[in-house]
User: Which sequence fits this backbone?
């Protein structure tokens, strides 16, 4: 029968992992999780490889029925997750039992959440990735978003039955807002813009337009002035690249971006800030701050150190698996969440 069933798919629910790395030379977009940090944290909570495939949920969450006892975790946007109608904690291990139903009620912060399952999903890997690329119609489950009635199998034999209660430290949980200042590395074609154009880019606040999706974000706001036009010989497009077409309004390239493009690129959003961009939606505000490559590298190093510390701490307190007759319950008492294991002795 499988391990879980999609009773209601939500708005845009897909399978995503770290993406297809190294295939851009063949014209294959990387795809992958828009918010790679939330993907990693969800997987860490359930004992998976950090980049294992998970369910990416956009704006409106699905309803999922579990056919097995599983360990799950939900990170990213707060879309008010509930088990059997009861609110559950995000950024924490959650134990679900056979017959439990996961649902989501309302979007509070951000716009993309991630659901990881201990053991990961049994899906074919295409070009070393299980990620769904919707425009290409491959990866994930039949190359499409999830629909009502879909069954997803879980690698139960690779997962854990018990991990205690893991929680991401509060000071490492992202605070998603509707205004964000993204740090950027200038270039590679910033020399194609006037000094006034550069100043406009760095001093202005832009609004995300309705033309925002997994491929890219079109921004509305002050026009950025070119020196000699916007067109260049097509070149590679990196994650977070900021193209400026002839109309002068920037476009930020995201996970499903094309592999090459012929518009001038004024700057690139640093990798540490991409997860925050992934949680912005139409109408939200964004501005830009220039930093150096050395500063960007230091930010990556510090974030990686924190992630490793979290993993090491969880590994130190990893508990043995209980016997198969045990069941786990999440109980809320006086505003606190407790995980209780019940084991049959006789």
Assistant:
């Amino acid at each position: 029968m499988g391990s879980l069933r999609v009773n209601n798919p939500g708005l845009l629910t897909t399978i995503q992992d770290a993406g297809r790395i190294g295939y851009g030379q063949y014209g294959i977009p990387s795809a992958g999780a828009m918010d790679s940090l939330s993907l990693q944290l969800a997987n860490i909570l359930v004992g998976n490889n950090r980049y294992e495939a998970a369910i990416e949920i956009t704006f409106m969450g699905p309803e999922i029925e579990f056919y097995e006892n599983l360990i799950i975790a939900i990170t990213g946007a707060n879309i008010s997750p509930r088990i059997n109608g009861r609110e559950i904690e995000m950024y924490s291990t959650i134990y679900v039992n056979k017959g439990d139903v996961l649902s989501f009620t309302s979007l509070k912060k951000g716009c993309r959440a991630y659901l990881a399952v201990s053991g990961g999903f049994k899906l074919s890997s295409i070009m070393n990735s299980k990620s769904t690329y919707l425009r290409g119609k491959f990866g994930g489950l039949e190359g499409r978003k999830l629909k009502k009635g879909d069954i997803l199998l879980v690698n139960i034999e690779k997962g854990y039955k018990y991990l205690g209660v893991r929680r991401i430290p509060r000071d490492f949980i992202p605070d998603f807002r509707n205004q964000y200042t993204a740090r950027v590395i200038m270039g590679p074609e910033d020399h194609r813009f006037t000094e006034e154009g550069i100043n406009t880019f760095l001093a202005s606040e832009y609004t995300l337009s309705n033309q925002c999706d997994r491929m890219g974000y079109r921004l509305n706001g002050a026009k950025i002035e070119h020196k000699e036009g916007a067109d260049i010989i097509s070149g590679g497009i990196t994650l977070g690249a900021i193209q400026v077409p002839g109309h002068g309004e920037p476009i930020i390239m995201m996970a499903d971006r094309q592999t090459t493009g012929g518009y001038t690129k004024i700057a690139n959003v640093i990798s540490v800030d991409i997860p925050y961009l992934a949680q912005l939606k139409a109408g939200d505000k964004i501005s830009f701050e220039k930093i150096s490559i050395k500063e960007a590298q230091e930010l990556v190093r510090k974030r990686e150190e924190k992630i490793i510390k979290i993993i090491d701490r969880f590994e130190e307190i990893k508990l043995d698996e209980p016997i198969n007759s045990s069941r786990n319950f999440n109980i809320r008492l006086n505003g606190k969440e407790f995980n209780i294991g019940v084991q049959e002795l006789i």
Notes: The longest strand covers residues 260-269. The CA atoms of residues 26 and 259 lie 9 Å apart. The mean pLDDT is 93. Residues 4-175+305-342 form one domain.
